[in-house]
Amino acid sequence: MTKENILKTYFELIENPRNIYQNAQLYEQNRFNSEEIKPFLRLSDADIEAKMTKSNVLDYRPDAVKTEEWESQNKRFMNYHRSLTPFTLINGLPFNHYLGIKTGLAYAENKVVLDVGGGTGQTFVNFFQYPHKLTYFLIDPNLRLLHDQFIRIYPQLLTLKMGHILGFGEKLPFKDSSADIVLCFAAIDHMADYKQFLVESKRVLKEKGQILITGHIDAPMTKRASRFLGQLFSATFFEFLARKMHQLTNRVAIDDHTVHFDNTQVIENELKNLGFRIEQSEIIKGRQFYILAQK
Ligand SMILES: C[S@@+](CC[C@H](N)C(=O)[O-])C[C@H]1O[C@@H](n2cnc3c(N)ncnc32)[C@H](O)[C@@H]1O
Description:
Blueprint: H1 3-13, E1 26-27, H2 34-37, H3 45-51, E2 58-59, H4 68-82, H5 86-103, E3 111-116, H6 123-126, E4 134-140, E5 146-147, H7 148-153, H8 156-159, E6 163-166, E7 179-184, H9 194-204, E8 205-216, H10 221-232, H11 237-249, H12 265-273, E9 277-284, E10 288-294
Parallel strand pairs: 2-6, 3-4, 3-7, 4-6, 7-8
Antiparallel strand pairs: 1-5, 8-10, 9-10
The structure holds S-adenosylmethionine.
S-adenosylmethionine is lined by residues 77, 116-119, 122, 140-142, 144, 168-170, 185-187, 190-192.
């Protein structure tokens, strides 16, 4: 983006207040062109040119990976995307920062990062502390644009470029041993075949490369009910009410996951079978987990 366009973007947002619960204004990511992504992909130059859209998104979605269940869950998921608000952003950030600092990956420099199921690509600037020193790729089967909330908070998003690939974790377009870090935040539980994604991750990672996976822990019904009651009778009751009304209006699904994990063991075993070494693993407050493993 040129300096002129960046200034124009911010000028329009000045004195243009947004409410927490309103639909977001969407912005395109700042993307690498085909020449810039060629060195990382295992496709021919002609194939890259053919799959590249005018706005520099490489469409690498094979139909075969889309199952009927994935399609229907995904439809519900896209409603969730459209109604994401700054409430979700500010409440999700502590987890990102905790994870980045604990794993040390927040300080990564001079690395090639593949953010699989990366959604909007916000991780580029809200997980990494030196994004300008990384080569970052966003890989996701859905074209999820940037909400104005990100643009308001992270000016780097308008200046730094990322690679943007429409594709599935189960079939990555990258060359063997081309990446230093594979991230998969809250996406493994949306996949049709997460085991195949782990196989692909092993292939694209360099020797000693790392994979960081997060996901939700499937809480028992009793725990979910007590959480719900806790919110109902807390000081944030009106906030809770506004959020629920916003979600209802936008038909947000209560649960849009395709896979549920009640512990980290099954993924850890899968990673070990593939030859990964588990470096860290934690279930946080019974709700979310993360696993860091090295090839
Ligand atoms: C809950 S969102 C997480 C987005 C992002 N990682 C974040 O933390 O903000 C899950 C994402 O997984 C994507 N997804 C669904 N199936 C996938 C697949 N098979 N491979 C890669 N991503 C997938 C969805 O499109 C969605 O953007």
